[in-house]
Amino acid sequence: MGNASVEVAEYIKALTRVQSDVLQNLPDLGASLASILRRVRAGQFPKEGKLANGIEYLVHGSGCLFVSVDGHEIDVDFLANGNPVFDAWRIERFSLSRGFTPVSTAEELTRACRLMVSSGTLEEASRGWFAVKSEAVAADQLIGRDQG
């Protein structure tokens, strides 16, 4: 597996782990990590904070940046149905937060994601936007993308 493929796989593992940790720590969110975004927009939850398990979060635009207790940055955007999507920039940011050098280029990361699409691990929700296969739908439905 090439360096870019390893970086993508590590990002996916970190995303899966942070999703599980956040939902366990905040059972009121239900089964959707995107509920944090909806709650912030409704004024029911602070835009940024630190959970009891040490994970920090910052809601932005159509998504959220999560920082694990070891400082790794997992940034996602959310589709209208609440499923997380990511692109090469988010994988690069994650890799940099882990101290990887050199970091694969965005083109290499996108190619690695597309290989994972071919193998059935990921779906390309929209050009350059990827989701774990069971969570993919069209990325043009990103929460807030078409909303003011």
Tell me the β content: 15-25%
Which whole number gives the mean pLDDT? 86
Low-confidence stretches: 136-148
Q: How far apart lie the N and C ends?
A: 42 Å
Shape by Cα distribution: globular
What is the gyration radius calculated from CA atoms? 15 Å
- What is the helical fraction, as a range of percent? 25-40%
Number of helices: 4
Please give the largest β-sheet.
5 strands, antiparallel
Write out the strand line-up for the largest beta sheet, numbering strands in chain order: 1-2-3-4-5
SSE series: HHEEEEEHHEE
Based on helices, strands and strand pairing, what is the structural class? alpha+beta
Strand tally: 7
Tags for this model:
148 residues, 4 helices, alpha+beta, two-stranded antiparallel ribbon, 5-stranded antiparallel sheet, disordered C terminus
3D architecture notes:
By secondary structure, the protein is an alpha+beta fold. The chain contains 4 helices and 7 strands; from the N terminus they run ααβββββααββ. α1 packs across α4 and α3 crosses α4. It starts with a helix and ends in a 16-residue tail after the last strand.
